[in-house]
Amino acid sequence: MNINEFWVRLCAVDDIPPLGSRLVERTAGNIAVFRTADDKVFALLDRCPHKAGPLSQGIVHGETVTCPLHSWQIDLQSGEAKAPDVGCARRFPVKIESGDVFLALD
């Protein structure tokens, strides 16, 4: 963990729809927080590395989100675009404690 990070309670896990997302709006760039079918939670900058499409509006399948603009598939754990595409969406650390989602911000 970066010494400048601090954890912020975002919501309850159940507040994020399964295979869906929740948007955290901020001036430094919005963050999309995703929930998989098996309740894993991931957070990425809400900008596809291809053409800055809103990943929060994409389709979640497994541990991947498909961008709604041009169907790039982004790995939720790493933020990396899946081959043959190349690029990366910034990821943010997430933790779950007692059913609540916490997001690390700097």
TrEMBL record:
PROSITE patterns: RIESKE (PS51296)
GO biological process, one term: nitrate assimilation
InterPro entries: Rieske-like_NirD, Rieske_2Fe-2S, Rieske_2Fe-2S_sf
Domain of life from the UniProt record: Bacteria
Keywords: 2Fe-2S, Iron, Iron-sulfur, Metal-binding, Nitrate assimilation, Oxidoreductase
UniProt domain Rieske: residue ranges: 8-103
GO terms assigned for molecular function: 2 iron, 2 sulfur cluster binding; metal ion binding; nitrite reductase [NAD(P)H] activity
NCBIfam families named among the record's database cross-references: nirD_assim_sml
Protein name: Nitrite reductase small subunit NirD
Origin organism lineage: Bacteria, Pseudomonadati, Pseudomonadota, Betaproteobacteria, Burkholderiales
